[in-house]
Amino acid sequence: MTAVTARAHTNIALVKYWGKADPNLMLPQTSSLSLTLDQFYTDTTVEFDPRLTHDMVRINAQLLAAPASQKVVDFLNIVREQSGQSAFAHVTSVNHVPTAAGLASSASAFAAMAGAASRAAGLELTPRALSRLARRGSGSATRSIYGGFVEWQAGSDDHTSLAIPLQETVDWPIAVVALVLDPHHKRISSRQGMQSSVTTSPYYPAWKTVVAQDLATIKPAILHQDFSTMGEVLESNAMRMHALTLSAQPPYSYFNGDTLRAMDTVRVLRQAGQECYYTLDAGPNLKVFCQTPDLPTITQKFAEQFGAEHVIVAHPGPGLRFLS
Amino acid sequence: MTAVTARAHTNIALVKYWGKADPNLMLPQTSSLSLTLDQFYTDTTVEFDPRLTHDMVRINAQLLAAPASQKVVDFLNIVREQSGQSAFAHVTSVNHVPTAAGLASSASAFAAMAGAASRAAGLELTPRALSRLARRGSGSATRSIYGGFVEWQAGSDDHTSLAIPLQETVDWPIAVVALVLDPHHKRISSRQGMQSSVTTSPYYPAWKTVVAQDLATIKPAILHQDFSTMGEVLESNAMRMHALTLSAQPPYSYFNGDTLRAMDTVRVLRQAGQECYYTLDAGPNLKVFCQTPDLPTITQKFAEQFGAEHVIVAHPGPGLRFLS
């Protein structure tokens, strides 16, 4: 059989995915919008092999035993079902995402897996079909099939829930400064957090309206390169997502003291004329959007405050591609 | 003229007041519920004096000039209007509330002021009328007219918005451990914060439903001494109030790193069997409710973590009384 290697980059959501409508099909409660980044990616090789008696999954040179490999095996089962390929597979995946950067490696991982596994199984899928397939592995992977700004349209079933590019090639000098502040494993996973928000936050119904309004505002802002509007929307969207965690029963938070200090730094930088806006996902680490002329001042400020080794700069990145 | 001295204690809200419906009459968006505390109080003496050419306001031995005295002068004008008393007044007020304890001294201050000023002006007001009057000075003062557990009924106008006691004498061994963690003046006042939440948070309409449900749950829990239910409601109510600050535009937070660490400590204590629940208002300091058998372990834990000098224990306290 042929080994196929695919590379996909991670993405950072400007309008968040927070809540599943169908946990089996990974249908989301709302649409979402992201920027694919250039710095963080996963290379995955898949080869189906009739001699195997079970799937062999190596991630970062570590052979995974069950149950750790179960998510990958489940995903391969979907590919086998779609392709008619019945053999088990060798999967070798290497994440080029700094440990605990707060930049979900599952997005790049399952996007690369969707590409490599489908082609290795003999399928030639369109990007839309790859996006649908990646969704089954991880919601945010749906968007990493495309480069640049990408919208995941919630849809209503397996067929209609997929990403479409808003602007694949970003001709706009913007950057994302990732602060890597806390290497600890988070106490509440995204999956648990989303579920808790959907089922217990009294604010969840209003969140769905927030997302619809934010998407309607941010898409033209991106296309018109209106940085202020884009920034205000992405920051308030993130905080309204985190308000769902505080308002869940029991309440919880992904913030720590560094999170709050970094938020203050963003505010101080803005007051000093360096326009920047933060977002954060199900973890304590801020990702700060800025325009490249402001990048030196902003990175220096964060390096002074948190140490240069905790500051990583990323730019808009490309979609899925095949390396072999 | 006669000098009258009144003493009122501060209170801590279990179901929060967060948002005005009428800023002039201080009518709230929702009802709220509090416990009056024994540790923190204000003594206020008022004497009307025809020889004065303006009101003389001394707080903690400091003579206030305009505009610092304006809130007190405005309040005295309401008393003069109600009483027909036309003289200016000497006001001497001493707050026995530790600086920045996060226990609003305005609650005890305006409750004591309402008592002393109305009686000095010749009015003999019922507790209900005193509660309505105190409301004009500060929303939370409405509740400090009564001891124990008190509900401020939102009402719909000046006449109907007032506190009523739920249980004035608390025959239940409970305590509130106040952590005094941050002496800094807060960046966003309660007044600004409330206004911002009411006008910009998409979750505010749902907050009003939350409060109605929380009141319906917590009142029987208090009367039946069901500590777990009371605790769960007061903690989730506080977090849902703070979710309104994160979801405002622009977003803001009253939390700091110590706030998050103290929340974690409460969680750890609960897991270890010491049942306790926290609340916090428009500032970073936690107030932790517990039952007195657990008090030694809980205070020791917080003393170890933050220093014994930052830990103050309070119990249910009395309503307004006249000292002369």
TrEMBL record, chains A, B:
Q: Name one Pfam family in it.
A: MDD_C
Fetch the InterPro entries from UniProt: GHMP_kinase_C_sf, Mev_decarb, Mev_diP_decarb, MVD-like_N, Mvd1_C, Ribosomal_Su5_D2-typ_SF, Ribsml_uS5_D2-typ_fold_subgr
Q: Name one GO biological process term.
A: isopentenyl diphosphate biosynthetic process, mevalonate pathway
> Mind telling me which GO cellular component terms the entry cites?
cytosol
Q: Which residues form the Mvd1 C-terminal domain?
A: 176-309
The catalytic activity of this protein is classed by the Enzyme Commission as: 4.1.1.33
Q: Where is the Diphosphomevalonate decarboxylase-like N-terminal domain?
A: 8-163
Query: What keywords were assigned to this record?
Result: ATP-binding, Lipid biosynthesis, Lipid metabolism, Lyase, Nucleotide-binding
- Molecular-function GO terms, alphabetical: ATP binding; diphosphomevalonate decarboxylase activity
Which family is this sequence assigned to?
Answer: Belongs to the diphosphomevalonate decarboxylase family.
Q: What is this protein called?
A: diphosphomevalonate decarboxylase
The scientific name of the source species is: Levilactobacillus brevis (strain ATCC 367 / BCRC 12310 / CIP 105137 / JCM 1170 / LMG 11437 / NCIMB 947 / NCTC 947)
